[in-house]
TrEMBL record:
Transmembrane segments: none annotated. This is 977_t:CDS:1. It comes from Funneliformis geosporum. Residues 136-249 form the DNA-directed DNA polymerase family B exonuclease domain. GO terms for molecular function: nucleic acid binding. Gene3D superfamilies: Ribonuclease H-like superfamily/Ribonuclease H. Pfam families: DNA_pol_B_exo1 (PF03104). InterPro entries: DNA-dir_DNA_pol_B_exonuc (IPR006133), RNaseH-like_sf (IPR012337), RNaseH_sf (IPR036397).
Amino acid sequence: ILATGEDGSGNTMNMNLIRMGCIKAYPIRGYHAEKKPYLRITAPNKDLRFTALDIISKYNSETDQENRIETASDDTGTYYRKVAREYKIPLSGAPYYAKSQHCPHAFYIHIDNFRLIDNFEPLYKIYPSSFFAHDRALVLTWDIETYNSRGLGNFPEAKNDTSQVFTICMTLHWKDDPKPLEQICLVDVEIAPNPDWITIVCGNQANVLKAFALCWKSFAPDIQLGFNDSGYDWPFIVKKATKLNVFDWMVQQMSANPYKTANTQSTLTYNYF
């Protein structure tokens, strides 16, 4: 399909620049106990990646449902966070390049040679130590897991009573420090414990949301980060908390101004994510 297809602008793929390989990964939608086989297609730049996605999208629009191709990642926007997550690249800190190949206008480096600096002593002789001073901002990262009791194939949406958030995981870091201060997992039912995480069994969905608000209040992070949190996680939490009548209480716990009374009406007047 990629070798013979064209995108909406008539662009084609140079297959000599494409790398392909078989991998196993968890599907991005729904819960799956086991990994499934995928064909990973790696393009050398964003333009070729977008062309490939456009060709596949065009093919899917012209064929029947049974023969359509399902893509694991079809984001045509900024996808640096996904790449960083898959290749475990730190998005902050001071990295260095090992064994880079130089040419007049660019340099190339294998992903395995992109490394985080863990010993700054040699660099103190070259640069002032203030250059490497760590920002002591407190960073909270978080992610939610949702499901739809109607089964796989039914995407969880907060408006549906059959859709629930059953897990919220959080890590707490000093900025630029990949080692977490705390790792917390909020769940609705008891699960097997993990010695690296603090697991809190909340009993039901409403308590999971309330526990999230209390953790937020206790940590009072300077920065919060999530994976697609503005596109899915925050809207889901806000809508579900509103539906469960715990939103006002959560806002009061999480607010940076505890002396100002907040309510659902005043909060939802603004774009909350």
